[in-house]
User: What shape does this take?
Amino acid sequence: MQRRDTGMKNKGIFCLVILLTLLSANALFAIESRRDHFLKPQIGAWFGPATPIGVTAESLDANLGGGIFFRYNLPWRYFKVGIDTSYQFFEQEEGVNKMHLVPIYGNLLF
Assistant: This one.
């Protein structure tokens, strides 16, 4: 009986070593692809919660919003400039009836 248990234990250790080796190799390849991905211009969109802050948070409730962004590389490696915009709509029964918010802002990424 003990011999069979030892064999099963060795198979388990072998499978664990193989799994860890595969995961490590995958992580190394992912690092390269992340570097390459960062050096390309990016365009994208987002959709999610938009929460008012400051004084407006007292009058308005959180709601859903969405936006788009564009980022482009500078001549210096690992630096990007970007422009983002979004649309947020808030409706409240008391005080402010409605508020449409369309912020446009720029950013510098490292």
